[in-house]
TrEMBL record:
<protein>
    <submittedName>
        <fullName>Putative membrane protein</fullName>
    </submittedName>
</protein>
<feature type="transmembrane region" description="Helical">
    <location>
        <begin position="12"/>
        <end position="36"/>
    </location>
</feature>
<keyword id="KW-0472">Membrane</keyword>
<keyword id="KW-0812">Transmembrane</keyword>
<keyword id="KW-1133">Transmembrane helix</keyword>
<dbReference type="Pfam" id="PF04020">
    <property type="entry name" value="Phage_holin_4_2"/>
</dbReference>
<feature type="transmembrane region" description="Helical">
    <location>
        <begin position="42"/>
        <end position="61"/>
    </location>
</feature>
<dbReference type="InterPro" id="IPR007165">
    <property type="entry name" value="Phage_holin_4_2"/>
</dbReference>
<feature type="transmembrane region" description="Helical">
    <location>
        <begin position="111"/>
        <end position="128"/>
    </location>
</feature>
<feature type="transmembrane region" description="Helical">
    <location>
        <begin position="68"/>
        <end position="91"/>
    </location>
</feature>
Amino acid sequence: MAAAILGAMFRFLIRLVLTALALWLATAIVGGITLYGDSTGAKFVSLLLVALIFTLVNTLVKPIVMMVGCALYVLTLGLFGLVVNALMFWLTGWVSEQLSLGFAVDGFWPAFWGAIIVWIAMWVMDLLSPRRQEVD
């Protein structure tokens, strides 16, 4: 039981670091997504905290938005999901600014492209990571 809990915590921490790396990649590629900080260590801590916020937003807020916008998903054949992802990324930037974490997203289009970059980076990382064995 304790080993399972430790394993889950370890996977969560690895996922958090990978999300932080994907967010850093978005700041490096997309203009309008800014990471502020005095030192590399401060920026890394900021990215970890922003990754935690990003995870919370996608876990708590995104399902509600998806349920409310269900008809738009159907009408747009799923393309509305891109808009929802951009809005979740933008919300992450706004919350980060309110908490003075040194991460800012300046508008919808930077959020749109940033969300796509984070999605692609996380998809590639998922492909490269080993799968957990399910035990019956």
